[in-house]
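Lab notebook, bench 4. The sequencing result for the construct came back, and we need a structural model before the next group meeting so we can plan mutations. Quick request posted to the team channel:

Model the 3D structure of this chain.
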Amino acid sequence: MSEMNHPKALGSTRLGFADEGELDRFVAKLEEFERGELAPDAWRAFRLVHGVYGQRQDGPMMVRCKIPQGVLTPEQLLALAEVSERWSNGKGHITTRQNVQFHFIKMEDVEAVVRRLGAAGLTTREACGNSVRNITGCPYAGVSEQEPFDVTPYAEAMTRHLLRGPLSSTLPRKFKIAFGGCCGGDCVGAGFHDIGFLARVRDGRQGFRVSIGGGLSTLRRAGFLAHEFLPVEQIFDVAEAVLRVFDRTGDRKNKAKARLKFVIERLGVEGFLAEYRKEHEAIAAQGGRPLGELPPVAIPRLKRAFLQPAGPGFDAFVDKNVRAQKQRGQVAVTVRVTLGDLSTAQLRGLAQIAREMSAEEQLRTTAEQNLVVRFIAREALPALHARLQSLGLALAGPRTIGDVTSCPGAMSCKLAVTQSRGLADLLSRHLEEHPEVAALAETLAIKVSGCPNGCGQHYVAGIGFQGSVRKIAGRPVPQYHVFLGGKFDGSSFGRLAVKVPARRAPQALTRLLELYATEKQSGETPEDYFARVPLPRAQALLADLTDMAESEATPDDFIDLGEKQSFQVVLQEGECAA
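Done. Here's the predicted structure in token form:
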């Protein structure tokens, strides 16, 4: 075992995911490229598999660190802090796949970045490219009062089984897996993953409900049910069988139609199942892929209480951010992270909180771009709240209407049309300034993407915004497609209702919330209402906002949110599918 992967080096029982020899090979390939011995396309394919992604700006790179199931130790948080401070823009960004990525890194600094991450057991391997991407998991797994069992060790075992596997980095397109089921439902968006595993118990035996072939983007598809109940011992067999079919039948020529969902679209569910069963039987004939010993789960060691009086804002924080665990006297605290961005100081402060106050000495990232601190003694909450306040992280209301999710958008992405982060910030501030509006639908999920690919997961939001462009008097104006009625839980996809200029989005949101408050049925959630409201009803309500004559346009309408110069659509060849 290399020193970087030794448990003592990580400060916990969890082994790391880094490989020292792999880091050396990465540097060797980089040097080949710099000497002109490796073609640009070959270098691009290689670095993408290692999580190094080109930005829309000429020169800087994005480096994505894979965070399996979102679990981070204090030592790993400190490594992220150092990367953000020394080589990035002073921030680490939590993604909707529970990763942490860094922007504006110079190519000459990439080696130092991946080595610093590797020293903490973190890897960038298969965080980008045509690979098995980060396997996501429920951040409440292991502490939920409703869960059938803790899925964490199974998700981690799957990560370790597939990471650097024979097919895991040479697929026709990216491949996504999720593990959840803490409440008996779909808490991880399993339905829009290539494979979704949801925990179930049957006759005292642990297993998973398995769906296959989900996806977002321009072809939204909910995965079909492949196994109502799959014993936990067979999860490797299933994953390998699906990957074999995808590797063999996926489209390697047209990346726009290369995802697994297009294979199923072409073959049909029954046709795909026939191919899947062939591979599954072949694997079984070889003796299967035994699950083996599961990775260890952190053993909580209760911390001292850190008693102190409650400060301003504490009651709202407890009401909105704290969730009881099944472990008596322990709670899980969700930390709301604005736009998913954590500063260097915040990362270091969180490392200290995890080490000193969390009995399991870990944090977990979430698909909503937040963090969960678990195994906190209930009596220690005032002290934790005070620490988070000192870090600027005590904002109440994660997973509420003001906690808007967004992809990076045109800040860095080559495919983005608009500054999605600018709209997310504008909507959050609008709701904060108008609490009476936010109160109309407090539980509503709002998500924003800068293009149709849906990295902000806007298709599965109660109200989703997708960046686009229109022309007024020949000049481009940033606008957003507004989708209504999507659901993360259950993977129901929103319907396109209208297209509004970017700066009119807050007005559109307010009117939609007022419509919900007026027309909702007793106990009806915002998502359920927006899934059923007739689109002509919403379109008539917003008609005056969707149309913009030249005489109505203001100078600001021609400037994207968060920018100062005139809006221009700058589309480049994206690398997310290269």
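The chain has 16 helices and 20 strands.
Will bring this to the meeting.
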